[in-house]
Amino acid sequence: MSMTLTLIEITSSSFNKIQTNPQLIEGILENQKNTLEELKIDLDHQYSEIDYLTLTEALDALAEEEGEDPEEPHFSPSGELNYDTGYGNVMFIEPSDLSEVYDNITWELIAALDENADELISHAVENKNYLLFFIS
User: Residue 50 burial (CB < 10 Å; 0-12/13-18/19+)?
Assistant: First the structure.
């Protein structure tokens, strides 16, 4: 079974709309044009998917290199939204917390494993946007 870590960069105003109506997330996932326009999301630049199992394997290999026990990824979210994607609720990182994301080995590996994810995270930090993420 494949598991995917999905990242979505959104503005503060879009985050407020989603926080009020978490069902808008479904519109993003179903690529509904009206939802994407309302939230001002460009899937080509603000959306990225990473193979979750590849991420966990990379974390395991790193732990083994350092003689440590493997651990689950630690995403350090600022909070969660009331929308379940199958492996838990959608999580988010606030703009004020996002600048510290590269201090976390999980996020460092995500950026190293996927250039699009790295660009998305960097853009979110630079523009003080929110980062939504979830496992499905």
Answer: buried
Domains of the chain: 4-135 (3.40.1760)
- This prediction has a pTM of 0.91
Rounded CA-CA distance 24/82 in Å is 11
The predicted-structure confidence for 51-78, as pLDDT tens digits, reads as follows 999 999 999 998 888 888 877 888 999 9
Nearest to 11 by CA among 134, 133, 127, 91: 127
